[in-house]
Each structure stands twice: as structure tokens, then as C-alpha cells.
Amino acid sequence: MTTTPTRRTLLRTAAWTAPVIGIAAAAPAFAASTVTCTPTGCKYPGDGPHTKDYVVSTNCATGQPITDVRIDGKPATRIDAGHWRLANQTDSEAWLPVKVTTTDGGTWSGTVQFKPCSQ
Q1: Are residues 61 and 52 in contact, defined by beta-carbon separation less than 8 angstroms?
Q2: Which site in 23, 41, 47, 77 is 20 to 30 Å from 7, CA atoms measured?
Q3: Strands 83-90 and 96-102
Q4: For residues 118 and 86, what is the distance between their CA atoms, to the nearest angstrom?
Q5: 115 pLDDT above the threshold of 60
Q6: Which tens digit of pLDDT belongs to each residue from 43-54?
Q7: pLDDT one-digit tens code per residue, 52-61
Q8: Cα(83)–Cα(36) distance, integer angstroms
């Protein structure tokens, strides 16, 4: 036996599907790009006896400018195109987490080893 949906059922279904379709259609506009980076890092002596200035060269293949770099979760300062510095941090031999963000919201995240910079 075939049943025909009631008018109320059709309206209720339409009310639920319209917002889902609208959200799904809008999602690609907010999707962030994938950024390819091969960052390298080094560290200079800091102001204190056990502090270092961490410098990262982002080496990213992106057409978008880099707007933010975080080293160990802390915002780094832009030195020039592709180089960022985090000053006066506790010296560490561990690989530190680095996150690079571009103007279009694309990100690269990974860890970088910071060895002493050659001067």
C-alpha cells in the first residue's frame, strides 16, 4: 500500500532541508587553503643567560602573504619577507611547534628544530 505524504510532512521536511542546503553551499567560500612550507629555524643568544631569540625561515610556496607565525604557541614578529622572530625565550633543545597562517586563512603546522644560528 502506497501512502502519500501529508502537506504538513512536506512543509516540515522543506523547513529542515533549506538551512542545510544553504550551509553546505556556503562552506567552500570559507574553506582555507593548504599551505606547503619547509621551515627552518635557528636561535641567537637572548638578553639573559638562559634565553634565546628563535628565528624561523618559513620557506612557503604560497601566492598569499603570510600574516601570522607562531612559535611554541606565541606570536612571532616579522623581520622581513619569510623571516620571523620570537625574542627572549627560555632555551630549549626540543623541536618546537610552528604555525604559519596566510591572508586567505591557509595554514601550515608542524615542528621545527632550532639549532644555534651561524653568525
Answers
A1: no
A2: 23
A3: unpaired
A4: 17
A5: yes
A6: 999 998 889 999
A7: 999 999 999 8
A8: 16
What is this structure's pTM?
Answer: 0.70
Tell me how far apart the alpha carbons of residues 77 and 81 are, in angstroms, rounded to a whole number: 11
Q: Strand 60-61 relative to strand 51-57: parallel, antiparallel, unpaired?
A: unpaired
CA 29 to CA 104: how far, in whole Å? Answer: 11
Query: Does the pLDDT value for residue 62 go beyond 90?
Result: no
Collect all residues with Cβ–Cβ distance below 8 Å to 69 and sequence separation of at least 6. Answer: 56, 58, 75, 76, 78, 84, 98, 99, 100, 101
Question: Which residues have a Cβ under 8 Å from the Cβ of 113 and sit 6 or more positions away?
Answer: 41, 95, 96
Q: Do strands 40-45 and 114-116 pair parallel, antiparallel, or not at all (unpaired)?
A: parallel
Cell numbers at 36, concatenated: 606547503
Which domains are seen in the chain, by residue range? 36-116 (2.60.40.760)
Q: How many CB atoms lie within 10 A of CB 105?
A: 13
Q: What span, in angstroms and rounded, lies between the C-alpha atoms of 100 and 76?
A: 10
